[in-house]
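With this grant's support, the team has encoded backbone shapes as discrete tokens. A representative record is reproduced below.
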Amino acid sequence: MNKWIESRIKELTEQKRDELTEYFEDYMWHDAFGESKIDELSLYYNEQYIPSKIETLENNDWNEIFVKALYEINSKYPFDNFWSHTDEIEKDYPKYINDIMGFFDSIQNKYNEDLNQAHDNALEGYVAYHLEQEAERIQEQAEEEYDELEGDEMD
């Protein structure tokens, strides 16, 4: 394959990658995938991640009342709904509210990182799959453009 065609294929592929990335970036979190990924990650945080973090505090001899409060809060207010219940939490645990908020704020930061990573991985997968589907068409387009250039030079 000649260098002009190879270069044009790369150029067309990058254009298509940008188009697909923009399309899926807008589309992804508004479909069932986005909702199911959020639900899946929230469930993991509620059932595994947060309890393991609380257990670590417990094993490191943190204040027993604070640790118990974290367990109660995690079971009473699912993580994805925690922030809408801060008034009730403050009323129930006024002495520990700053520590509780700090704990869940750090959890929220990690959750956001994980959610963004899942989004980026899914986006890359969607784009790669669709680029693969377009590869033959892109090559044909580059070859047709080259043939047209060659034909114009002959005229």
